[in-house]
Amino acid sequence: MAKVNPKLIDELKELGAFDISACYSCGVCTATCPLAQEGHEFPRKIIRYAILGLEDKLISSTEPWLCYYCGECTESCPRGADPAGFMMAVRRYLTTRYDFTGFSRRFYRSKVVEFISTILLFAITVLGVYFVHGPIILTRVDLDSFLPLHIVEMGDIAILVVLSALLLTNVYRMYRFTVAARDISFITYIRELIRTVVPHFLTQVRMLKCNRNTLNWIMHILIVYGYATIFVFVIVFLDLFQTNTLYPIYNPIRLGGYIASAALLVGAGYAIYGRLRKNAVMRQYSHSTDWFFLTLLYLVVITGVLVDVFKYLGLPIETYIAYTVHLGFVTPLLVLEVPFAKWSHLAYRPFAIYFTRINDLAKTKVMRTTA
Question: Could you tell me which residue ranges the 4Fe-4S ferredoxin-type domain spans (predicted)?
Answer without folding.
Answer: 14-45, 58-81
